[in-house]
Amino acid sequence: EPEVTQTPSHQVTQMGQEVILRCVPISNHLYFYWYRQILGQKVEFLVSFYNNEISEKSEIFDDQFSVERPDGSNFTLKIRSTKLEDSAMYFCASSPGQGIVGSYNEQFFGPGTRLTVL
Amino acid sequence: AQSVTQLDSHVSVSEGTPVLLRCNYSSSYSPSLFWYVQHPNKGLQLLLKYTSAATLVKGINGFEAEFKKSETSFHLTKPSAHMSDAAEYFCVVSGPFSGNTPLVFGKGTRLSVIA
């Protein structure tokens, strides 16, 4: 069964460093998402991406964050200058994006990348 | 704005006994509601979804949930717990429109199953 994969599973970095989290969505999906979960808190939406551009983003997704689909298979989240409060589990998801208004396209999630900022 | 509240952070049941994980939602319009499960070191997997059709929704692995608008609840149940059900469960709400909108998660309920 196709699944979303994420690498690395755990990333440790120093404050101020840039990190890139990688995701390979399911191959025929059209919508891509990043969510994060700070330890002990809710899973929060960061950004959605469709047709090579951001379709929606939350207040969390500020100028320190960027997303890219560099080669038609990978979907990356970059944090330019990490802060201690960026420590969290980051989940990538994808959905087919087909169907009519009022229908639901399931979002398929990866296993997450645990980012630790020291 | 939409939100969900999962009323228990941890539920512990004995194998073979019923499971009840509670969720209340808040939404300014008719929501779509979901339960996701996360096993250790695995991604979030959709258990079941409510999208304005039948109010009693059946999902995978014997789970079901009932949408009760009057109580703004969407509790998850299973008649008989299995050891493999031990995991983290998330109640999730989304808009009623085309399903590529962001999901809003509850804080999660950790289910422990005792042999």
Topology diagram in text:
The complex is a heterodimer of chains A (118) and B (115).
Chain A: E1 5-7, E2 10-13, E3 19-24, E4 31-37, E5 43-50, E6 53-57, E7 65-68, E8 75-79, E9 88-95, E10 108-109, E11 113-117
Parallel strand pairs in A: 2-11
Antiparallel strand pairs in A: 1-3, 3-8, 4-5, 4-9, 5-6, 7-8, 9-10, 9-11
Chain B: E1 3-6, E2 10-14, E3 19-21, E4 23-26, E5 32-38, E6 44-50, E7 56-58, E8 64-68, E9 73-78, E10 87-94, E11 104-105, E12 109-114
Task: Give me the Rg of chain B, rounded.
Answer: 13 Å
Give the DSSP E fraction of chain B (strand runs of 2 or more residues): over 45%
Q: How much beta of chain A, percentage-wise? A: over 45%
Report how far the terminal alpha carbons of chain A are from each other.
37 Å
Head-to-tail CA distance between termini of chain B = 41 Å
Helix content of chain B: under 10%
Range of helix content of chain A = under 10%
Taking the sheet with the most strands of chain A, its summary is: 7 strands, mixed
Described by its quaternary structure, the protein is heterodimer
Q: Low-confidence parts of chain B, pLDDT < 50 over ≥5 residues?
A: none
What is the H/E string of chain A? Answer: EEEEEEEEEEE
Q: What sort of overall outline of chain B do the alpha carbons produce when their principal axes are compared?
A: globular
Largest chain-chain contact?
A: A-B, 34 and 25 residues
| Total beta strands of chain B | 12
Average pLDDT number of chain A: 91
Describe the global form of chain A: globular
Output mean pLDDT of chain B: 90
Q: Uncertain spans of chain A, ≥5 residues at pLDDT below 50?
A: none
Q: Care to count the β-strands of chain A?
A: 11
Structural class of chain B: mainly beta
Structure report:
The complex is a heterodimer of chains A (118) and B (115). Chain A is mostly beta strands. Chain A has strands spanning 5-7, 10-13, 19-24, 31-37, 43-50, 53-57, 65-68, 75-79, 88-95, 108-109, 113-117. In chain A, the strands form two sheets. In chain A, strands 2, 4, 5, 6, 9, 10 and 11 form a seven-stranded mixed β-sheet that branches. Chain A has a four-stranded antiparallel β-sheet with strand order 1-3-8-7, with no helix packed on it. Chain B is mainly beta and 115 residues long. Chain B contains no helices and twelve strands. Chain B has strands at 3-6, 10-14, 19-21, 23-26, 32-38, 44-50, 56-58, 64-68, 73-78, 87-94, 104-105, 109-114. In chain B, a hairpin with a 5-residue loop joins strand 5 (32-38) and strand 6 (44-50). The model of chain B has no long low-confidence stretch (mean pLDDT 90). The A-B interface holds A 3-4, 9, 31, 33, 35, 41-45, 48, 50, 55-56, 58, 91, 93, 95, 97, 99-112 and B 32, 36, 41-46, 49, 51, 90, 94, 96-108.
